[in-house]
Amino acid sequence: MQLFDQHHLFNTGQDKTTVFDLPDAVVRLREQLFDKPAADRLFEALLADTPWKQEEISVYNKTYLTPRLTAWFGDAGTEYVFSGIRHRPYHWTPGLLHVKEKVEAEAGQAFNSVLVNLYRDGRDGVGWHRDNEKEFGENPVIASVSFGDSRMFQLRHKFRKELPKVNIPLHHGSFLLMAGATQHQWEHQVPKSAKPHGPRINLTFRLVKY
Ligand SMILES: O=C(O)CCC(=O)C(=O)O
Ligand SMILES: [Fe+2]
């Protein structure tokens, strides 16, 4: 069953790689790790088959619902702590294992877990943050794949406020790698958008050290 009209889903149609020349960061974009037919199939399968949940986060004794839906998958033992609560990952699905293989080949390293995010529309997003939790080791490598509607991904230096913000539109089927000191020196976000947006799924592959 087709859950979402894919006709407008934008894929650059050109598999270009861009290495961003940023101080204290290693950031690489591949426009089309998945071509449009593959991205369309994966988008539908992930949308339908993922056990989506809207997590609560506590900030200063108040609880909020995160403005996106998430699910965590990984090898047994890759527990993660979210808002003070221990979570067990779901087992890998065949679809996710297929994506993982392609992502590992492109990144040149293995991953053992993935956080899957669903941005239902323009009102969903993720605020400025770094993914530098201890369980990801010294210089975490994070590989991100996007399916569905295009959204803007932004980076800003955490300490050198004079540096300009970096805007990277992430399209259907794209791959983005963050490595080196990126998770220490830079923050990233996907801002909410006042423009209408269809759903977008993003997968961030990580290596939990345990
Ligand atoms: O949706 C994205 O492109 C980024 C998601 C993200 O930053 C995260 O899951 O930590
Ligand atoms: Fe992140």
Automatic annotation (TrEMBL):
A Pfam short name: 2OG-FeII_Oxy_2
Record's keyword annotation contains Oxidoreductase: yes
Matching PROSITE patterns: FE2OG_OXY
GO molecular function: catalytic activity, acting on DNA; demethylase activity; dioxygenase activity; hydrolase activity; metal ion binding; oxidoreductase activity, acting on paired donors, with incorporation or reduction of molecular oxygen
Domain of life: Bacteria
Needed co-factor(s): Fe(2+)
Domain Fe2OG dioxygenase per the UniProt entry, residue ranges: 110-209
Gene Ontology biological-process entries: DNA alkylation repair
Keywords annotated in UniProt: Dioxygenase, DNA damage, DNA repair, Iron, Magnesium, Metal-binding, Oxidoreductase
SUPFAM superfamilies, A to Z: Clavaminate synthase-like
Protein name per Swiss-Prot or TrEMBL: Alpha-ketoglutarate-dependent dioxygenase AlkB
Species of provenance: Deminuibacter soli
